[in-house]
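Title: Prediction job returns without error message
Component: structure pipeline
Severity: low
Priority: P3
Assignee: unassigned

Description:
Job completed but the reporter wants confirmation the result is attached to the right record. Sequence as submitted:
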Amino acid sequence: MGLAPRASAAPPKRSLLYLGCPAGPVGAVLRGARGSGPESDALSVIRAGLRAADVGPGVASALAGGVLRAGRRRVRLSEYGRVCVVAYGKAAAAMAEAADAAAPASDGIVVVPAGSPAPRLDSSRYDVVRSSHPLPTRRSVAAARAVTGRVASLRRGDLALFLVSGGGSAMLAAPDGVTLEEKARTTALLISSGATIREINLVRRGLSRIKGGGLVEGMECDGAALVASDVRGDDPADVSSGCTVASAYDPATALAVLKRHRILSRVPRAAITALGGRRRAASRRARRIPHAVVASNADCVAAMRATARSLGYAVREADSYGDVGEAARRIAAMLPARRRTCVVFGGEPTVRVRGGGRGGRSQELVARLLLRCRRQGTVAASVGTDGIDGNTRAAGALADPGVATPREIGKFLACSDSNALFARRGGLVVTGHTGTNLQDIGVLLNSI
């Protein structure tokens, strides 16, 4: 862990803000915060965004009346001899529960993150597999084998209903041309380099047998996918590295990602060799199946916008994509000096890790916003909708400029130790696993 400045002698106003999410983001309970004022307003807006991150309603709507709606396709599920749910990602449990309530499947396999609550499903029909995130482990390899085996068991006249959410890239690992350790090392370097999720998944596809449509290659049965998007643009090919979407692979583009982020020399040699292989067209053996995005970050931002307006704020909307410092500059510039205004935003900034501290995208973004916005009555907040921010147990942070001086904040940021800043001075937001994953959400408001 990196060195951090000594905390001020003044006691923090709060240490943790708890948003209890015992059954996902719906019905989040606020404890330990003020009953009124800008901090409470900011937390109300964040809570609205978390509630809107519930993936259940979108899944239920796509299966209402036992009719599957995916793209232009409308299929009555009763026409199939066997309907098998294949769910993976951080929202797998919630998506599978919603699907089974709307249209019970014949059987299914559900891959969930280790440490998350067990899904409420009939154990006689569903197998639950716990896997690893953010880096693949042997659990990820076992999960991939279980999923591919289940898909291979389906025949003509059956339907594979894929329920896909972010996080599946690490939770399903089928290394191709590299060992598991080499793949994990490459992934870790990409994550800490500041690469975007699209860039990371591009490289992952070059090192995997099941990503980029490999999961549905040679599949005999019909298939369809309902997707909870954790990527910019909501392209199913980018969610969990597109295991169900046939995609081309270009070695030059993958290697350019490693060069752009200055990690080429540190990536295992076997990974470089595997990534530099032949250019591959999208597999003709991969089934082209319909996809429907049933939940996205836009749902969260819309809910936050409505809540902020109901609290009497003029509302502006931004995104938090790109370098975290640039995202903070862009968001801060939208807050006027003398008007009761709330900037709501969603997305996923990138962070180049410096030093050995602990932190995450959301906590670092809040710290950088507080560097730029020092006015009284200002509050900044950002949380990951999945409840996990970086290498910490916090979902994010909520704080005002009084949490620390610019110099103190700068010292924490110099070693990527934003978690220590808010743990010592107050402002961590903790939710636990939320059962969803629709990127990050945040707010910057001026109450005066």
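Comment from assignee: result matches the submitted record. The first strand starts at residue 16 and ends at 20.
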